[in-house]
Amino acid sequence: MPERIPATKVLLMKPDVQLSRLTAGGMDEPNAEWTQLGFGHVNGALTEILQQAGAEVIRYDTGGQAPEIAHSVEQLNKLYELVGVSIVEYTFLVPQTLPTKSNRFDWTLGAESVQELREQSGADYALFVYLHDSYATGGRVGVMLIGAVFGAVVPTRRQVAFS
C-alpha cells in the first residue's frame, strides 16, 4: 500500500497512452484497441494508487471550456511531452548533455502556465503521464533475426514512459 500523504488534491491530466505495433520497416503502427485498453488500465491504476495514498483525485475535464483555455491546456500537454522526452534523451540516453543543464536537473513547464491549472482546479499538484510502447510484428522479428546473422542489432520494441 502506498505511503499516506497529507490531504492533497491531485489534478490527473488525461494520460497520453499509445500502444502500437513496430513494423518490419521500423515504423510505429498505432493500435486503437490496445491504446484504449492501456489508457483505461493506466488511468484506473493511477486513480487507485493516489486515492489509497490519501489524495483527492480531480480528473481534468476539457468539456465546457472556452476554446482558448482548451488550446492553452493542449499546448501545456505538448510542452510536457517535449520536456519529458528531452529529459529522457539528454539525461539518460545521449552521452552529451545540454550546455545549460550540465550539472543541474531543473526542468520546468513554467510557473505561469501551471498556475492556470491550479486556479482552474484548486489542486495542489498536477500529474501528467506519457506512455508510448510498441511491440514487434512477425516481420520485425524476421528483420531482427536476419540482422543478427549479419551482426546488426535491430530493436524489437520502443518504450518511453514518464510522469
Walk me through the structure.
The protein is of the alpha/beta class. 44% of the residues lie in helices and 21% in strands. It has four helices and seven strands, in the order βββαβααββαβ. The strands form two sheets. A four-stranded mixed β-sheet has the order 3-2-6-7, with helices on both faces. It is globular and about 60 Å long. The chain starts with 7 loop residues before the first strand and ends with a strand. The mean pLDDT is 84.
Comma- or semicolon-separated keywords:
single chain, 163 residues, alpha/beta, 4-stranded mixed β-sheet, 7 strands
Layout of helices and strands, plus pairs?
Elements lengths: L7 E5 L3 E7 L5 E3 L1 H21 L2 E5 L7 H27 L17 H11 L3 E3 L2 E7 L1 H12 L9 E4 L1
Parallel strand pairs: 1-4, 1-5, 2-6
Antiparallel strand pairs: 2-3, 6-7
